[in-house]
Structure formats: structure tokens, C-alpha cells
């Protein structure tokens, strides 16, 4: 504004001139001077007001620039809308995320910035308390696709408390969520490592205990094993002696006693009983060797053995005294030779069969299906029961040491864990799952070492038998 000096434009009359005027002229001149003074005061006030206005404008411009810089620097999005939800102002963060300038966003309904699920959530909140959002997770329709936001909001009101609209603030939580997921994953890994350390210490303690038990068992098992060997020789000589006596003409009393004591049946059953006792003694001997090997961690020498025979033997020993009447379905070849430790594989099979029987304790018609086949260079054995199956939350814990779902005193939680380790030592894999038709299914994969006299087209065994029948 141009400032003017009124004194330069309207000079005051000299006092000598006033003295020469009449009283009327003097009054007029005095009035004129008074008017000029008042005009000078008004003009001075105008100049002062102009300076104050210019200062206020400058302060207002600075405030606007400050607010604009703050809005521009905000990484959170800002939406200002009226009471109907129409956008009145946004910040640069929202423009960058949506790829739309503020001019296109103004007048648009703010709910159109979000996906359909978030729109429903916003409408429900607007019905309860308008614009009152607190860490509400919504999905913004950004130029790169849907983006999760943590949105907060509050209502705008005038001095009389009337609703003018609302202010919404949204913070992208993609990075926060990724950081949280990474933290959660690290926490799970830490817990797993901690549990592995605990399990390792338990297994080390168990190994020391097993070493002592195996040492104590070794001597009595050696006695039993040696005595059974001697009994087999004695039985053979007694059989020869009795056969010689029977060829002669015995007296009526001897013949009657022979029938009464069922000597003939005894002679027939004696070899199989001794063979079974010998097999049991050998099995116990192998178990002791496995325990000693487990406690020392030493590898045992692999031999070639018939996996079909090992499966049938394991099933026979477990099911012969089972408390339930079990039906077994076999789908096995006549013979399948592989390399490994038969005692360890038999222990794995015994554990799986026993677990299946325990799981079917309350089943009305329990049935066990066993299948053995070859796939490429591996053999695959599956065992499936028709029990209740395995709870989903337990599938990932089955092979952990000391984990068991059986009541206290009925399970140690080591059977499947040791089986998993034994299969892994053979270069194989043990898996557990729930069959689509119900029941649990275990799958054992082992390396296949082909031999010349093994044929893949051997006739399979498919007839089901009772648990007490001969295999």
C-alpha cells in the first residue's frame, strides 16, 4: 500500500493570517484545521491497520506453508470429509497411494477408497458412532492393489457441538505386519531350538539309563539264548529215542499213557515251540543290541533280509495276544529283499502295529490294512487303521521325543520318535497322516537294493486273516 503525507497536501494557515480574519472566517478556518487533524489521525490508523493486516497475512501464509509441509511430510494418510462422508481434503500420502490427485478425490465418498469388506465395516461403525474409528483394520484400494491400513478417526464439530464431518488417519501396516511375522517366526524357531535342547538333554539321560538297562539284561538273555540252543538239541535226541520206542510193540499201559499225555501232539508241537522260543530270544537279544547301539550311537552292519517276512513276523508277535479281534488285510509280494538292519525295522513295524491296535480299542470292527510296493528305487510300506485318526494339532508333534496322547502309564512317547530315527538311519522317511476315508495311516519309505533273484511280478498275498491265525 502507498502511504501519503497529508501535511504536504494541506498546509496549515499561518497564525498571522488568522489574526487578520474576521471571527466567522476564523471559526471556519479552525473547523477546517480540526477536520484536517482528524483526517490525519484516521489516515494514521489506516496505515497502522494496513501494517497489522500485512503482518497477519504473512503469519497466515507461514502457517499455511507449515501445515502444508506437515501434511506433505506425513507418511500416514489423511482424509477430511463432511458429515455425509464426502471428501473435502486429503494429503499427499493418499494421493501417492491411490495414484489420484486431490482434485479428483474431493467430492468423492470416502468409503469408495476401500474394498467391499472394509466398506461394510465402515458403514457399521458409522451407524454406531460417526467417524469414531480406533485401530480399525481396513483394505485401501491403492494403485498397487489392496493395502492394509490401521485407521483411526474422530468427528469434527462446531462451537455448538453440531457435527461438521470427520478426520480419518490411516497407517499402512504392511511393513509392520511383515516385521511382526518375522518376529513371530523367530520366536517359533527359538522355542523349537529350546525344545530341541531339552529333548537332547532328555535323550542323553535316557541313553545313560538305557546303557545300564542293556548291560543288566545282557547276562540273563545270554542264559536264555544258550539254554534254548541246548533244549533244541535235547529235544531232537529225545524225539529220536521216543520214535525208536514207538516202533516197538508197547504194552497196553504204555499206549494208554501215550494217548493220555498226547505224546504224539507234543512231539509235533515241540519243534515249533522251540523255534518260537528261539526267535523270541533272538528278538530280545537284538533289542538289547539296539539299546546298546542307541546309547552309544554306533552304526550297526547292514545285512540283506526279506522285508515281507519281517512285516509278517512283527504283525504276528503283536496281534497274537491282542485284546481286540482284529481283521488284517495284506497286500504284499511273496518276497522283497532290501539292505538294512532287520531287528531295527521290525521294531519300527511293531511300534506302528501296536499304536494302531491301541487306537482301535473302542472300534466295533477293527481292521488293519498293510500294503508293500516299490516306487522307482524305493520300497513303500503303508499301514492304515480304521480308528478315530490323529488330531490335526498332533500331526506335527507325533515324532517328537516324549510326546504321547496315551494316558499316564500307558505310553512313554518314545516309540514313534525312535522309529523315526531308525528309519532315517536307513536312509528312509516315516510319515503320518489321516486317510481320506477315516483312520490314521503311516507311510515308511526305504531305499530299494535290487537283487538278481527278486521279481516284481511275484504273486501278492491278499487274503485277510484273524489276529490269532497263522501268517
Architecture overview:
The structure is a single chain. This protein is an alpha+beta fold and 471 residues long. The chain has 12 helices and 13 strands. Strands 11-12-10-9-7-13 form a 6-stranded mixed sheet. A hairpin with a 5-residue loop joins β11 and β12. α10 packs across α11 (342-359). It is rod-shaped.
Describe the structure concisely for a colleague:
The protein is an alpha+beta fold and 471 residues long. It has twelve helices and 13 strands. α7 packs antiparallel against α9 and α10 packs across α11.
SSE inventory with pairings:
Elements: H1 6-9, H2 15-19, H3 23-73, E1 77-82, E2 87-90, H4 92-98, H5 102-105, H6 116-128, E3 133-142, E4 145-157, E5 163-172, H7 174-247, H8 252-260, H9 263-296, E6 303-306, H10 307-319, E7 327-331, E8 337-340, H11 342-359, E9 367-375, E10 378-385, H12 415-425, E11 429-434, E12 440-447, E13 465-466
Parallel strand pairs: 7-9
Antiparallel strand pairs: 1-2, 1-5, 3-4, 4-5, 6-8, 7-13, 9-10, 10-12, 11-12
Helix pairs in contact: 7-9, 10-11, 11-12
